[in-house]
Each structure stands twice: as C-alpha cells, then as structure tokens.
C-alpha cells in the first residue's frame, strides 16, 4: 500500500519545518534567518546517505525475498559502517570550523548561527545510519514501525521546542531537533535489531582513527587561521590517506556489493 509512504512524507516535511514555525512564534525574523543558516548545510549533508540507501534498497528487498539472511546482515553492517565512517569526519570537521564555515557561506552577520550548527552536526551520527535502517525496515515491509517513530519524534520535537526556544532561541531549537532524531533513529534501530541481528562498532576502528587524525590536523589549521576552504580540503585528504595507509577496505567492499 502506498499510504504509509504518503504519511511518512508528510511527517518528514513536518519535522523539517516545525522548528521554524515555533521559532517564529517565540522569536523574530533575525532568529529565523540564523536558524536557516545553521540548518541548510546540515540538510544538504543528509543527502549523502540517501544516495547509498537508494542503491541498497532493491538489493535488500531481493535478499529478503530470497531468504538470504546472512548476505542481508553483511550488506547492512557494511553500509551502516560506511555511512557512520562518512558522518564522523564531517561532523568533527563541522564542529571545529563551524564559525568560519558559516561565515564563508552566509557572511559574518550570520556567525551567531554557529552554536546551533554545531549541535545540528551531531544529528549526522543518527540520521546517516538512520537512513540505512529506514530502508531496511521498508525492505522488510514494516513501514508502520517507521510511522510510529516519526509521529513520536514529531510530538517530542514540538514539546521540546515549546520548552526550549523561549529561553535558548535557536540553540534550544537545535537541541530539540537532535533529541528528536535520537528518538526516531534509536527506536528504528531497536526495532530492526528485533528483526535481524547486526553489529557495527567492530567495523569502525580504522575509520575512527582516520577521523581523529583528520580532526587533529583541522584543529591545528584552525589555530593557524588557515582559510576554511583549504582546511576542509586538507582535512579530507588526511582522512582519505589515513584510510589508505590503514588499508581500510570498507568503501571498496560496499561498492563491490552494489555493483555486482
């Protein structure tokens, strides 16, 4: 049936816009502009796992239909490790260079959006794997589970916005979004674990080391007031080179699964 997807689309749009609506009730246009500056780059980052999950969905559906549980487990674990491996350096880099990054994109008048941006960057740790988890739930034809988590997350977001925005403005709104995403994706993760057993942390050792190496370089460059574009490029190169040195096969393994 198509109706679960329609409801999920409505809830997804609601989740994205409700912060802005409630922020507008309690605060003014200046705060709305700051929050938009903090949230827009994060929304663009959310597109990254969507590309992988779109490729994985038909493969997951086929494996489930063919009762190939071990292969399904393998592709689920590797894809989750991959998106978490991508989220880690992006989030760490965003935390470190938040102010110059926001200033570069929107100008110095939006630099006050940096704290909210830093908080929203933490959502990557939940949204990135959550995208893969959601597609797996769809592949198992359990869309109603996702509807429940989205509805619960939307209600939680509204309550937290009302409680936090009057005192903490855009930072409160960002915290509300983070907590809501933790609830949504944590619930979906828990439900999928009841359907199929999987682990992720065992695949993240080398990725974490590479991300920490990148973070160290980015912090050093930030202290030296290096232009943010150069900092981002060097940080990305350090991360990729570290993966190569450590012989991390994750990206190539997932690619081989998708292209086979």
What features would you highlight for this structure?
260 residues; cell shape; Poly_Biosynth_Transport; transmembrane helix; peptidoglycan synthesis
Write down how many β-strands occur, each being a DSSP E stretch of 2 or more residues: 0
Number of domains: 1
Report the total helices: 11
Q: Largest sheet, described in full? A: none
Beta fraction? under 5%
Oligomer: single chain
Mean pLDDT across all residues, rounded?
A: 88
Instruction: Name the poorly predicted regions.
Output: none
Written as H for each helix and E for each strand, in order along the chain, the element string is HHHHHHHHHHH
Q: What is Rg?
A: 19 Å
User: Portion of residues in helices?
Assistant: over 70%
Structural class: mainly alpha
- Shape by Cα distribution: flat
Task: Note down, in words, how this protein is organized.
It is found in: Cell membrane. It is a multi-pass membrane protein. Keywords: Cell membrane, Cell shape, Membrane, Peptidoglycan synthesis, Transmembrane, Transmembrane helix. The chain is mainly alpha-helical. The chain has one domain. It is built from eleven helices and no strands. Helix 3 runs antiparallel to helix 4 and helix 7 packs across helix 8. The longest helix is centred in the middle third of the chain and has 53 residues.
Quick structural summary:
The chain is mainly alpha-helical and 260 residues long. The protein has helices at 3-26, 29-45, 47-65, 69-96, 98-106, 114-121, 124-139, 143-195, 205-223, 228-245, 250-259. Helix 3 (47-65) packs parallel to helix 7 (124-139).
């Amino acid at each position: 049936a198509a109706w679960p997807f329609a409801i999920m689309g409505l809830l997804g749009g609601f989740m994205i816009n409700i912060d802005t609506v409630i922020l507008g009730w309690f605060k003014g246009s200046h705060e709305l502009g700051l929050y938009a500056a903090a949230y827009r780059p994060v929304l663009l980052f959310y597109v990254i796992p969507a590309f992988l999950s779109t490729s994985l969905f038909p493969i997951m559906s086929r494996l489930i239909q063919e009762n190939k549980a071990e292969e399904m487990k393998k592709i689920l674990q590797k894809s989750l490790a991959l998106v978490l491996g991508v989220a880690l350096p992006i989030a760490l880099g965003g935390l470190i260079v938040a102010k110059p990054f926001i200033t570069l994109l929107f100008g110095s008048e939006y630099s006050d959006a940096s704290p909210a941006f830093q908080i929203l960057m933490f959502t990557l740790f939940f949204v990135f794997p959550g995208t893969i988890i959601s597609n797996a739930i769809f592949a198992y034809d359990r869309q109603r589970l996702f509807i429940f988590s989205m509805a619960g997350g939307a209600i939680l977001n509204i309550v937290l916005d009302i409680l936090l925005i009057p005192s903490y403005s855009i930072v409160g709104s960002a915290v509300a979004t983070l907590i809501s995403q933790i609830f949504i994706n944590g619930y979906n993760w828990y439900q999928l674990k009841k359907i199929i057993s999987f682990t992720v942390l065992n695949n993240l050792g080398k990725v974490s080391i590479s991300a920490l190496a990148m973070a160290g370089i980015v912090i050093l460059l930030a202290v030296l007031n290096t232009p943010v574009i150069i900092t981002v490029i060097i940080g990305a190169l350090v991360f990729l080179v570290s993966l190569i040195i450590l012989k991390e096969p994750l990206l190539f393994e997932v690619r081989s699964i998708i292209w086979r």
